[in-house]
Hints:
Jelly Rolls; single chain; Tachylectin-2, Chain A; polysaccharide degradation; six-stranded mixed β-sheet; mainly beta; six-stranded antiparallel β-sheet
Amino acid sequence: MNKQCFNPYLPSFEYIPDGEPYVFGDRLYVFGSHDRFNGKLFCLNDYVCWSAPVSDLSDWRYEGVIYRKTQDPMNKLGLYQLFAPDVAQGRDGRYYLYYTVSFSSVMGVAVCDTPAGSYEFYGYVSLPDGTKLWDKKGDPMLFDPGVLVDDVGSVYLYSGFAPKRGVPAFLTRGRKRSFNGGYVIPLEPDMKTVAGEPKLLFPKAGEAEGTGFEGHEFFEASSIRKIRDTYYFIYSSINGHELCYATSTSPTGDFKYGGTIISNGDLYLSGRSSDQEAYNYIGNNHGSIVQVGEQWYVFYHRQTNRHHYSRQGCAEPIEIREDGTIAQVEMTSCGLNNGPLAGRGEYESRIACHLTSAKGAGRYGVYFGNITFREHPYFTQSGKDREDNPTQLIANMRNGAAAGYKYFLMGDTGKISVCVRGSASGYMLVSNALHSHPFSRIPIHPSKEFVYYSSEKTSMPEGKQALYFTFEGSGALDFRSFVLA
């Protein structure tokens, strides 16, 4: 089988959410937070970077650790996380990494001569007199940087945080903060000195009436791109699971709401809007867009392990129309493949783009969220957090649980096998849509070890097809892979 791209696009042991993708030279780099498998908080690991040649987006290379928590002078003991970063190339040709240490509301900057080298601490975003920006009680919250170096060399920092209930003062260095929405902050060419008055651009929930942002107000995850003569601001809305965009002809004002680019539960497609109607377990979302060759992509993330502290990056092709609009795209298993996967071979179950229980999916919120563990399937791996040995699978598939995969180019495939283990007894039903009539039934029997079970020879629909595996029976199973033969 030819080399293919899957979602998630990085190895299954890697948890890089909040992805900011950039093409520098002939490689695509993704900078993001670094979650820990089965972590109890967001972003517990140091920053690492992955890159791929623009000619082969399946060939991802681990660039190693690029910045450690302890390198920030305010975090020498490494007790606090490095939240979502962004990277921009300055007028001097060097690369600048922006981040906040947890909820400190202090924006740190590190610098490196190469995109994925070893970054060194450079300073904090500060006023001309050297005092840190927004470092007083009641000041707005600096959070989730998005950085743009414009065509003429002007530098803009976009930041803000607007949760419905704010953040307790004990998490913000004991200083109560204001949470008004998303701001733009002009910077000097030195990439860290504030060059003008910050301006509120994006309204928060409850203050957006008449703006066009109603129902999709700014929450977090600022990201900015310039495409031709238009500025695209990508952000996570108050709904959490979606990445939205707004556009303007100016980097500092008059942004108009554009729409949803992607939801990590495929909500808003086909009229579905409630958490329980999601086709995948939802949680926060963060990412951006990038052009590789002639194709544009959106990078986003999904949740794993029954909570939102072990997130993984995914990507989908998007189209920027002649009028500048972007239609919402669906989650797929093929993502960067730019087309269906081959209808032959063995595929890991982890590349499912849809995962639901018999009662639907739901939202991961606080650690336990609103998901009852016993009833729901989930993505997980064996062992502890690591940088090798992929072992990810879907666990706890019970009666009515379904894993969906989009898309495959089916031809003369006549046999399907699944690799499972567990106490389950029943059938794995295979169909081309969720809750549709199956074209194959694979008998499943209890086993403590992973075992392959196969269907009788069957006639599968040809052409571009989705595949859904739904368990029908008693007990629970772990689903490792499936084979199209």
